[in-house]
Amino acid sequence: MTLLLTVLVFLIWVCALVNSKGDVSSPSVLITSGFLISVFVYVAFSSSWGSDVTINTVLVISGGLISFILGEAAAKHLFLVRKPERLATYALPKMPPLANAFFAVLVLVCILDIVLQYQSITNLVSAATADPVLGAYRQRLTEASMPFYLKLFNNILIPTSALLSAFVMVFYKGQRKYWLVFALCCLASVLTSNRSGVLCFAISLIVLWLFKKGCTSNWSSFHMKLIVKVASVGLLVVVLFSVLGTLTGKIIDIPDAVEAFGIYAGASIALFDQFLNEFIYSLNNFGSETLYGVSGFFNIVGFDLGDGIYKFLPFSFIGDSGFTANTYTGLRRLIHDYNYGGAFFILFSMGFLYSKLYQAAKSSFCGGWFFPVLLYALVSAYLVLEGVDELFFFSALTVSALLMYVLLWLFSRFFGGKELKRER
Which of 53, 197, 237, 404 could form an S-S bond across to 189 if both were Cys, CB 3.0 to 4.6 Å? Predict the structure, then answer.
């Protein structure tokens, strides 16, 4: 069944690419690419793990991806949008007069967060501990004990700074100094012992770059040179991801970084199969693993809808390997909370909404309105990682995310607002 799953996911990816006419930054291509990578990694390690998938897993993953693609297709056909112009005939406006002050503010935010984070680490972790410092810090620091100012930095200001610096680097010439901001944001995220933040930053940067390529190629940017470039950057991200695992103490019990990467990227397929084989739906499951962000928002305004705290999934053994992991693909949480039909409907709705956002980004960009582009780059990272875990409900539907959207909107008002000029 592993071979059948691989073939079907690959064919669905090809269909998504054809349906988007070679637009590699479209939502359906991003989500199928994420699943395809996870499946390929799973295939590479499945023999050593002693794992194989069942027909249930093949049908559910295929059905989920098809539901998303159908949602995207429905949005395209139900709503007519203005055909976007090619960016090749336009020049981006110059950086605003206060751009240097904006750069200084971003650097200051990053440095301040790093200093505060370092103080928090030294306060919680003894210098004499034998464990990796960041790993020990992660064990001692819970969401409840994190100071409010660190939540403000880690959940809002640092992700926003990373995204804005990536946008400026991609779309404005001669702004290489913003690499400093991006690097500081990555360092700040690493100090929280949370590598997924760095991964999201990198994916958003790549999506912005692909979006620009689409602008200059009439939204048909698929070619082998592009794939090689993306694969090269992806390989570098993988190496950094594995190195960061040693710093945070997460791969101490794993023989090597290659095995660690296999577990992070491919174990979700094996564990999702194990989950489906034991799954029995109960109405008590409704929203229990996905609506914590919504619950947290209503708790703030005075309604008691649960604790509103993210729930980590239990660790399970991966086949016969003796290794454990707690990633089950994004489908696991949706099926657990809403059963199969509900999960497919949510994926259809996500495809619909992502498609509308992407069309808005393409249509409004040349008019000088950057907010839809920034928002799409932010939430597209959750699509790519859907093959590993569910991040849309975790990251996009929270109070912190709402405040990030406000900051991105303010940036768009500050940097954009003018129609892009034609080059001569």
Answer: 197
